[in-house]
Amino acid sequence: MTDGPSSPSSATHDIVIVGGGHNGLTAAAYLARAGRSVILLERLDEVGGAAVSAQAFPGVEARLSRYSYLVSLLPQRIIDDLGLDIRFARRRYSSYTPVPGDPDGRGLLIDNSDPQATEASFARIDAAEDSAGFASVYQSTGELARALWPTMTEPLLTRSEAQALVGNDEVWQAMIEQPIGEFIRSRLANDVVRGVVATDALIGTFASLSDPGLDQNRCFLYHVIGQGTGEWDVPIGGMGAVTGELARVARESGARIVTGAEVTRIHPDGAVEYRRNGHERRVEGRHVLVNAAPDILDQLLGESPEPPRPRAEGAQVKVNLLLERLPRLRDADLDPRAAFGGTFHINETYTQLQEAHSGMTRGVMPELLPCEIYCHTLADPSILDPELAESGAHTITVFGLHTPDRWLSDENNDATRQRLQDAVLASLNSVLAEPVEDLLLRDADGNPCIETKTTRDLEQALAMPGGNIFHGPLSWPFAEDDEPLATPAQRWGVATRHPRILLCGAGARRGGAVSGLGGHNAAMAILEG
After folding, report:
1. DSSP state of 489
2. What is the DSSP letter of 157?
3. pLDDT per residue of the chain (529 residues) written in tens, 0 to 9
4. Over 220-260, what HEC string results?
5. Residue 41 forms beta bridges with which residues?
6. CA distance 264 to 279
7. Cα(321)–Cα(270) distance, rounded to whole angstroms?
8. How far is Cα 155 from Cα 59, in angstroms, rounded to an integer?
9. Is the pTM of this model over 0.85?
10. Shortest CA distance to 458 belongs to which of 52, 24, 80, 30?
11. Closest Cα to residue 523, out of 36, 49, 47?
């Protein structure tokens, strides 16, 4: 094997894509359809990355969206451009939030189809004065979404251009320039209602709502602009249906997809070394698109960025459960199908979120961990075996917040995973009328159907540094006014230090979540160049 420099004329492919997650597949599909020769190298035996469906429990026919689980940021443009045959279910209920410790089990139910019922629910938790304020919050986020969403599949605007496009300086200042906590507190008075809004700023992001660094604002922005509405939908057939379609289109368009191929080195000249079936191999491309975190790219290049990049750190724990039926609620008058039909917030008041962050900064786990639940099978029972679905069984996914990776290590991961799982179940049981453990189905080995994924598990399984689901700190979906935008890669937000290497994953500008934006924008930069 030689290490000598290559030139564009000696490239064996137009494009080498490193990583077969949904963004890598999106880039492969676009570029292959445009007539470019594309080879995609995926370390695992199957493509899809974090957007996969898996049979998590032996002998149980339930294909869970094991890691990522909802879709909001995948533009219709990508679906139409690539002719993807994918469907989504829109949830009737936005959210349900029990009042922590309330003896009557009262909770706030946001019903997208019944404004009067929603208003009555505000009154029931003594928050009638916040009904109008809650609506005004999402009127403001809607202004931001309608202005910025169409720009996500276009070259980057500058900050000044984006602000002018939004047009409402009050909204811009509140959500872009000042800590999002100030905006929430100015519009809402009730602690529960404030928390419902605040959670969108903290999914996978370890930050205070008042953090001057505004990581929480960037997280909030990406959670409220999808489709220009902020709606999050359920993929029919699970996340694997989305990446399966992307892989189909990429292959049918001529892209070569190689699995079980572990990339070991990337060279600035476009050469990529990888290991497959025990053999060392090398491929050369005119361009290399990297669907991996920027930290992983640095390792593969053998480089250390200057100045050093902030450490990528995830801050979530995910627990998947398969239940024989939905749990009974403390509020006996509320149908569990409504409560679990949207996002079920648990111990996520504004105060609880702030105290959890403060405590975990010191390494102290809160007595009741802030969590939220999503039930895929209420919207899409097709992920279950028909007999299992007919029996009343349901999957639920619990997403625990403010569990930073800094407290985990390879040595303590097993013990910490069990501790976090216990904390999640205790938090969930605090708002239910029966222990959720009593409802767990058993797999073929007689074990309860529950699996927990820590940030360390994500790093080990998916090569996500620090278990960060965004591959690193999120960026604004626009460029600063003084940023260079001279090259296609810079204009599309996918540039690296090396002109032949582009980011195409969640670590690109406008990356994060299941969106395809990193792949689309890298492909557009190549085609523009």
Report:
1. H
2. P
3. 333 445 544 568 999 999 999 999 999 999 999 999 999 999 999 999 999 999 999 999 999 999 999 999 999 999 999 999 999 999 999 999 999 999 999 999 999 999 999 999 999 999 999 999 999 999 999 999 999 999 999 999 999 999 999 999 999 999 999 999 999 999 999 999 999 999 999 999 999 999 999 999 999 999 999 999 999 999 999 999 999 999 999 999 999 999 999 999 999 999 999 999 999 999 999 999 999 999 999 999 999 988 888 889 999 999 999 999 999 999 999 999 999 999 999 999 999 999 999 999 999 999 999 999 999 999 999 999 999 999 999 999 999 999 999 999 999 999 999 999 999 999 999 999 999 999 999 999 999 999 999 999 999 999 999 999 999 999 999 999 999 999 999 999 999 999 999 999 999 999 989 999 999 999 999 999 8
4. HHHHHCHHHCCCCEEECCCHHHHHHHHHHHHHHCCCEEECC
5. 18, 258
6. 12
7. 44
8. 48
9. yes
10. 52
11. 36
Which residue, 110, 111, 112, 106, is CA-closest to 125?
A: 106
Q: Are strands 450-453 and 316-323 parallel, antiparallel or unpaired?
A: antiparallel
Please name the residue that has the structure tokens 């939908």.
233
Phi, then psi, of 116 in degrees rounded to 5: -65, -40
Token pair in block for residue 108: 């706030």
- Helices H / strands E in the chain, number of each: 19, 18
CA–CA dist 17, 510 (Å, integer): 19
